[in-house]
Design a protein that fits this description.
two-stranded antiparallel ribbon; disordered N terminus
Length: 259
């Protein structure tokens, strides 16, 4: 039987391009507000739960999530790469983006969208920083974990939408414009690049920013290069990261469109 690490590498969780078919059309996105009523018991019925300690902006936080994300990879059916559980663990780029959010006042009072909220670390940081936030993910369980973590860490309810930004006409249900769009480690595959590059300009208000945390994956580099070629300004900060069992450099891009 193949090892979990081999399965992870084969399916591209370490940034290798995949050759899976395009996602199928999904049901219309739905809006939900989770609060303290998002019970760990409901999640525990589906997962063995665990907590990961993180230090963000001088705060010691504990994030609830699946205790063994690799086991979710093993449960994927053959050729079902559309449902890779990227959301089920914390990633260095998410921690770097959360740190940046908590150490600036740029988000206070701003209308902010997070694409791919995962377990909710960056979402919690954005709400503590005073943002008016909408968090989006294509996995219902990601939204449930994120809502629980945000309520526990930030003391507020998380407003979410379930939907796939890579699907048809995402701009219609994401309800732009936003002052800031946040995204951490969302570009795993080449097929992500052009849809996101086409979408982001539709989402931003005049003078808006895209904050993208990217651990130097090939797809992330292609995306940034595409925006630069289109005239976007890119202020990039390279952040050495050691934690979550990894040691790498995360590039934090603050991108603004031309004009």
């Amino acid at each position: 039987m193949r090892s979990r690490q081999a399965a992870r590498k084969r399916r591209g969780l370490w940034g290798r391009p995949l050759s899976a078919p395009e996602r199928r059309a999904e049901a219309p996105a739905k809006t939900a507000v989770y609060g303290a009523a998002a019970p760990p018991d409901r999640l525990a019925a589906r997962y063995r739960l665990g907590r990961t300690p993180v230090q963000v902006g001088g705060r010691s936080w504990s994030m609830l999530g699946p205790a063994d994300p690799d086991s979710l990879i093993d449960a994927i059916q053959p050729n079902d790469d559309d449902r890779l559980p990227y959301w089920a663990q914390l990633w260095p780029a998410g921690q770097v983006l959360a740190e940046a959010v908590l150490t600036t006042d740029a988000l206070a009072g701003q209308r902010v969208l997070e694409l791919g909220c995962g377990l909710g670390l960056t979402a919690a940081a954005a709400l503590v920083a005073g943002a008016e936030l909408l968090a989006v993910d294509c996995e219902p369980d990601a939204l449930a974990f994120a809502a629980y973590n945000v309520q526990a860490l930030a003391g507020v309810s998380l407003v979410t939408k379930l939907g796939n930004w890579r699907g048809p006409d995402p701009g219609a249900w994401l309800e732009p414009p936003y002052d800031i769009v946040l995204a951490a480690d969302v570009l795993y595959e080449r097929r992500d690049v052009e849809p996101l590059a086409a979408l982001v300009p539709q989402l931003l208000a005049p003078g808006g920013w895209l904050w993208l945390a990217e651990p130097r994956r090939e797809a992330g580099g292609r995306f940034v290069a595409l925006l630069r070629e289109a005239g976007w300004d890119d202020v990039v900060q390279s952040v050495p990261f050691a934690g979550l069992g990894q040691r790498l450099v995360v590039d934090l891009h603050r991108l603004t469109p031309p004009g």
